Amino acid sequence: MSDMDVAKYQDVATIQRVIHTAKTVAIVGLSGNELRASNFVGYYLKRHGYRVVPVNPREKTILGETSYPSLLDVPVPVDIVNVFRAPDALPGIARDAVTIKAGSLWCQFGVINAEGTKIAADDGLDVVVDRCLKIEHARYRGRMHWLGFNTQRITSVRSGLQ
């Protein structure tokens, strides 16, 4: 982790604006392994209407989508670059996000790197650090439920069974 003011990059208005305006999310470090957090986040975002673009040079397809080796290979405009990589990789990812003119750089829990954050922020990208996109989406779009699943149940009491 870097020494930086993380709270500066956890502004509620910025988080809400990014979530409410984005349509396409490139997930750098998206894993094909269903047990990985990145896969769960990607699956959740697809279920909620976002176009998810996997960025992982080790995979051909993830979640039914073509996986690209780097952000520079992504053929569509990207609203959010969501990062599931080690903090040391962030400066390079931030430079690529700037190059492709992404709207924002979103760094998942623990992805904290002052240099990478500065690169993106200095070029005008909205930056969110040390927050989970799935959790924040659920919080601000009214979909926060037990274990992240919308069960469509209002109560845990079973009707008619005694």
UniProtKB/TrEMBL annotation:
Family annotation (InterPro entries): CoA-bd, NAD(P)-bd_dom_sf
Cross-referenced Pfam families: CoA_binding_2
Residue ranges annotated for the CoA-binding domain, each copy included: 19-111
PANTHER family referenced in this protein's UniProt entry, alphabetically: COA-BINDING DOMAIN-CONTAINING PROTEIN (PTHR33303:SF2), CYTOPLASMIC PROTEIN-RELATED (PTHR33303)
Protein name listed in UniProt: CoA-binding protein
Source organism of this protein record: Virgisporangium aurantiacum
